[in-house]
Amino acid sequence: MEPAIEWLDDPTVFRVGQLPAHSDHHYFRSKDEVTSHTSSFQQSLDGQWQFNCATNPMNRITHFYEPQFNSDNFDQIKVPEHIEMAGYSQIHYINTLYAWEGKIYRRPAYALGDDDQQAGSFSQGLDNQVGQYLKRFDLNPAMLNQAISVCFEGVEKAMYVWLNGHFLGYAEDSFTPSKFDLTPYIKPKDNVLAVEVFKHSTASYLEDQDFFQFFGIFRSVHLDAKPAVHLDDLNIKPRVAADNTAGFLNIVLKLIGQNYAGATVKFAIMDHEHNKLAVQTKLATANVAADQMEFNHVHLWSHIDPYLYHLEITIKDASGNTLEIVPYDFGFRRIEIKDKVMLLNNQRLILNGTNRHEWSCKTGRCITKQDMLNDLQTFHDLNINADRTSHYPNQIPWYYLCDQQGIYVMAETNLETHGTWQKMGVDEPSYNVPGSLSKWLPAIMDRAQNNYELLKNHPSILFWSLGNESFAGDDLAAMNKYYKTVDPSRLVHYEGVFHNTEYRDRISDVESRMYDSPTAIAKYLSNNPDKPFLNCEYMHDMGNSIGGMQDYDALFDQFEMYQGGFIWDFMDQAIMVTDEVTGKPALRYGGDFDDRHSDYEFSGDGLLFADHTPKPATQEVAYYYGKRE
Amino acid sequence: MANVNNKLHVIYGDATLGLTGDHFHYLFSYERGGLESLVQNGKEWLYRVPKPQFWRATTDNDRGNHFSQKSATWLAADMFSHCINFNVSVDGQPIELPIAPLNNKYTNNEFADQVEIQFTYQTATVPTTTVDINYLVTASGKIQISANYHGNADLPELPAFGLQLVMPTAATGFTYQGLSGETYPDRMNGATFGEHHIAGMPVTPYMVPQECGMHMQTDWVTITRDQTLNNTDQSRNPFSLTIKNHDAPFAFSCLPYTAEELENATHIEELPVVRRTVLCILGAVRGVGGIDSWGADVIKRFHISAAHDLNFSFEIAKPVINE
Fold first, then answer.
1. Theoretical Cys-Cys bridge with A239: which of A27, A248, A395, A602, CB 3.0 to 4.6 Å?
2. In a domain, B273, yes or no
3. Mean pLDDT across chain A
4. Is the pLDDT of residue B4 over 70?
5. What is the average pLDDT across A64-68?
6. Within the 7-36 window of chain A, which residues sit less than 8 Å (CB to CB) from chain B?
7. Measured between CB atoms, does B298 come within 8 Å of chain A?
8. Which residues are bridge partners to B89 per DSSP?
């Protein structure tokens, strides 16, 4: 297979050579590894990489991935890190409109006609910077003689990958992992991994979130070794009976292995205190399902009491040697709409939520687990019980932490096409994607599948969200149907259908709106509505704001179908720099990097300042959210 | 000059009216149109005469819903309103303006139980209206201040209405009895009522500097400084001034900057070094809003109509005497 630069222009090409998306489980070689949560099946490639930044595709070094290529002239860059934050590309904040506004005229391929390919739009884009990365590595001894894959946890916005000169594949969807099999080409020593990252591709149309425009490898990269029989995908399906007391548990596995002969899979279920509740052993095959387990009385998971059960899967070979152990904490809870009200475990669901971008004023969207823990501490301080992952899948540890800490998650698909249908605040969808365009459908379905397959086991996730501000059409209706089909146990959310009500019956289980006034919400709820109401964004906390929250709070008492929402948003997005005049640290926003066209301070809408200190209005939020906890 | 019989000593100057007693000396200036000097325990508390306050530094919500555009005339009023009239009453009796040559009839031994002086300001708005600021000084040194705005239906809604006191040096901090944190009429239910101390004069670091630091429902506030501009006074011992409510709680902010200084900055680091204290005592504050930041108005009941009269009052407490 030969890579083609034209893939950048083609919305139908978005994954080439990638391994299928699967659950986010960890796996270990021994009990000791489980306890210390360090897996000798994994080798990190984070750290210093060699790097060259080309101004555009025409200026890139075309053969940099070849093993004999002399990279002595390459710079060094840290992985993970945004290329802009490393100084190779101008920092730029722009909200709705695309980054190339006023600089390059573009339209999405096929949006204005079936034969309108927009050839060369990105592959010859003069603004399309290219980051060329090289990493030389030896395999850890524990990784030898096994199948090996590489996992890129997050790369914006399109990348081509080679190992030792062999082309492996191509990936978009910046916010879910991209994995490639290295087994045919890997060597014990002196491997060269080459990654070519483009700032723009057709994926840029699908990733128009309101944030700083970054590109590069911004999440971790690691190698995964796989034992002879390996759990590739885990699907835990806990169900709570209608009596809200009994529980049923189904577990479905997909294994990959060279030789299943005699290999076994053991399922062990324990409660939180590690009392063993059930054990089953099955023969290993490509598809394994545990017999349904029934529990007379399950301890339910909720914000107040995020009780988790413990699953441990042990795969052994014919001789009884442990091949791998997979621990996974899961929960029993029931989310449903009954009599037009969202219920969690048979109680009215109250969302005291916030939208949250991944953000650090020092490192942008490249954040650490400590950053997440700090954010969650603030959630608890402010009585926030729900998170909308605006507007893309977050780093995997976030969902585990939300499981543990009882945060209700609206898990958003990596999709926003705001600039294709709204300009200067006015709806104008003449070149909207994905709309009802068949050429764009596979790409967005892939994003939904990546989101679902990766995160399906997290009890914290109550909603799948189709994305943000992407208007509505047949494609989003298809995505809605996908989520309903693969996962009837959760609700599906989407707000953009508000702008195209023709699709109202086919998209979104809930009436979701942004920034409606309390009066407008009361009007909807007074008029025999068909769907429960939530604010996917409300109380826009830009600067000195959060006035009038009491009027939203009052709706809870007036209308059973009012279920709260998610404040926009958690933290200001601003970047800490050294002030050019005083030499002191200073927070900067759009336009402060000579970046134009810009939306300037519009990214400063957080409950917290960008340095993580709370804004004064948080005492109001803590009060009202605490009142409804 | 000793305070004879616990009365106010009145000094009928040619450009000022001086009032003095135990541990205080106040000067009302006819030229500057207001209270020019407020000395308690030998320390000056005013840098310029207090002026009616109408503006607040534009918040992101104000910008988004075009409130500042619609009410821009109040920015001019905040900066350029001027005194057009004043009158004086002694012991409840209005007197003819005591300026030369009329004041030739007085001596250096004039005393009264109370003196009241009122300044009338004309707003730099189109159309204009007037604000009366009335100071009633009693022998103890207490000053009761009332501010009266005269409504005019042809004027746009007000951002705020109060009196701004600029002090010569920066406060080291302030203590108040009222609501915790930063509060506004539409954002004060999360606060706790009590006595709160704030070190220094923190400016809330909104990404774009804007209105901040408001404290609603206040019973009293004590400002503490430890430095004067008086060249003979090199002491750094802290000293304080207390503002008390009169018949209803007031709102205040205590910041090192005027609304106009905040208005002009695009980043907090552009603000000047901290040098003065700007204490704003307010009788009316517009809500901050929060539905969205690109058009939604503040909820109606938190607006300030310009059509109706606005009146509020407060007291500057008599000096605290540490014998």
1. A248
2. yes
3. 97
4. no
5. 97
6. none
7. yes
8. B94, B116
Hey, where are the domains in chain A? 5-20+40-224, 229-330, 347-571+607-627, 576-605
Closest CA to A147 of A223, A66, A61, A243: A223
Cα distance between residue A458 and residue A398, in whole Å: 10
Average pLDDT over chain B, rounded to an integer: 96
- To the nearest whole Å, the CA of B240 is away from the closest chain A CA by 26
Radius of gyration in angstroms for the set of CA atoms belonging to chain B, rounded to a whole number: 20
Domain with B135 in it: 50-82+119-316
**Residue whose structure tokens are 């552009």:** B270
Q: Is residue B105 part of a domain?
A: no
Note if A324 is an active site residue. Answer: no
3-state secondary structure of B268: helix
Q: Which of A540, A589, A619 sits opposite B292 (nearest CB)?
A: A540
Closest residue on chain A to B180 (Cα): A619
For the stretch A505-562, pLDDT in tens is 999 999 999 999 999 999 999 999 999 999 999 999 999 999 999 999 999 999 999 9
Subunit contact B269:A579, Cβ cutoff 8 A: yes
Distance of residue A519 Cα from the nearest chain B Cα, in angstroms: 10
Nearest C-alpha neighbor of B309 from the set B164, B185, B153? B153
Q: Can you tell me the distance from the alpha carbon of A563 to that of A383, in angstroms, rounded to the nearest whole number?
A: 16
Residues near B319 by beta carbon (within 8 Å), at least 6 away in sequence: B22, B23, B24, B40, B41, B141
Q: What architecture (CATH level 2) is domain A5-20+40-224?
A: Sandwich (2.60)
Indicate which CATH number applies to the domain containing B243. Answer: 2.70.98.10
Chain B hits for A548, CB-CB cut-off 8 Å, are: 186-187, 287, 289-291, 298-299, 302
Coil, helix or strand at residue A522: helix
**Span B46-50, mean pLDDT?**
98
Contacts of B56 in chain A (CB under 8 A): none
Q: Give B206 to chain A, closest Cα distance, Å.
A: 5
Q: Please tell me which residue of chain A has the smallest CA distance to B286.
A: A547
Q: Is residue B14 part of a domain?
A: no
Candidate list A84, A312, A358, A537, residue with the active-site label = A537
Query: Which residues on A lie below 8 Å from B212 (Cβ)?
Result: 544, 616
Pairing of strands A562-567, A533-538: parallel
CB contact under 8 A, B207 and A582: no
Edge-first strand order for the sheet with A166-171 is A15-16, A166-171, A158-163, A191-198, A130-137, A47-54, A75-79
Question: Could you tell me the pTM of the whole model?
Answer: 0.96
Interface of A with B in 514-533 (CB under 8 A): 515, 517
pLDDT band at B85 (very low <50, low <70, confident <90, very high): very high
Q: Do A617 and B182 touch (CB under 8 A)?
A: yes
A581 touches chain B (CB under 8 A): yes
Q: Looking at residue A259, what is its pLDDT?
A: 86
**Domain at A229-330: CATH code:** 2.60.40.10
Please give the Cα distance from B319 to B323 (Å, whole number). Answer: 12
Is B1 a residue whose pLDDT tops 50? Answer: no
A550 near B CB under 8 A: yes
pLDDT in tens, A125-166: 999 999 999 999 999 999 999 999 999 999 999 999 999 999
pLDDT at B283: 98
Domain count, chain B: 1
Fold annotation for A347-571+607-627? TIM Barrel (3.20.20)
> Does A551 contact B299 at a Cβ distance shorter than 8 Å?
yes
Among this protein's residues, is A469 annotated catalytic? yes
Indicate whether B243 belongs to any domain: yes
Quick check: B187 and A548 CB within 8 A?
A: yes
